[in-house]
Amino acid sequence: MLKIAYHHKYIHPLPSGHRFPMLKYELIPLQLKHQGVITDENLFAPGLCEEQWILLTHDKEYWDKLKNQTLSYQEERRTGFPLSASLVEREILIAQGTIEATEFALKHGVAFNVAGGTHHAGSNWGEGFCLLNDQAIASNYLLNNKLATSILIVDLDVHQGNGTAEIFKDNPHVFTLSAHAEKNFPFRKEQSDLDLALPVGMKDDAYLNLLHRTLPGMFAQIKPDFVFYLSGVDVLATDKLGKLALSLDACQQRDQLVFELCHRHKVPVQVSMGGGYSEDIKIIVDAHCNTFKTANEIYF
Fold first, then answer.
1. Cis peptide before 186, with omega less than 30 degrees from 0?
2. What pTM does this model have?
3. Which residues is 130 bridged to in the sheet?
4. Which of 19-23, 80-84, 109-113, 277-281 has the lowest mean pLDDT?
5. Which among 17, 143, 155, 283 could bridge 161 via Cys, Cβ 3.0 to 4.6 Å?
6. Which DSSP category does 287 fall into?
7. What is the pLDDT of residue 17?
8. Is residue 201 packed enough to be buried (19+ CB in 10 Å), middle (13-18) or exposed (0-12)?
9. What residue ranges define each of the domains in the chain, with the CATH number in brackets?
């Protein structure tokens, strides 16, 4: 059964000015249920992530500042959010949603978090609307509990996963791959194990050909026993922050390639949704729902 982490606090603690792009977290499950892809049985509400798992990834000093809401003005401004207790709680819920989704993926092959993909959060900083790095926390959870020994993080959000790259720069058990628009946020990049820096305006064929040339070799080289997939839909031509030019069809073909590789190699995969900032929220929701539907067709 396809299992999906969803909690109403993924959206409601946010200041009103930030809620439009976050509405997708509420609309995606509604759309999937409307289309008959899922029922309420597919959804689970995560609890709060335990501090011990957060501290495997984030420095204690930084975590204490988040908990106590004592980030400096510069640190808070870098996150893009006014810091609040409810916002920190939201991030803890998202991290736990990804941890619990990894456990479902180990059982069923694939599992989702409606939110997550907070890949700009580094070991001691928050940035770009990311405070805690959910897939990094879940990776360290798996490694610490000996549930995985070789992890591949496939980050296909349009922005580089700079926080993820920094966190795992010296960890031989986690391979970080980021395919992102070269001339886009974050403007100070970190070094992933493999960075695919994409030119502005890249279209369907060039993008898909690059992934077909790259991803199969990664599975052969790394032989992962767990995959994290960040499936941002800010690669679309309609996205106001993306700078790439993909169609909805190409975005879905991208998802299909990742899922087919994981399925063929019998590697569990956890999916976090990442970015999506098209002016028309229907396009955002449709693109994300395509990711769920593609996984459901391949696995179930």
1. yes
2. 0.96
3. 127
4. 19-23
5. 155
6. H
7. 52
8. exposed
9. 3-299 (3.40.800.20)
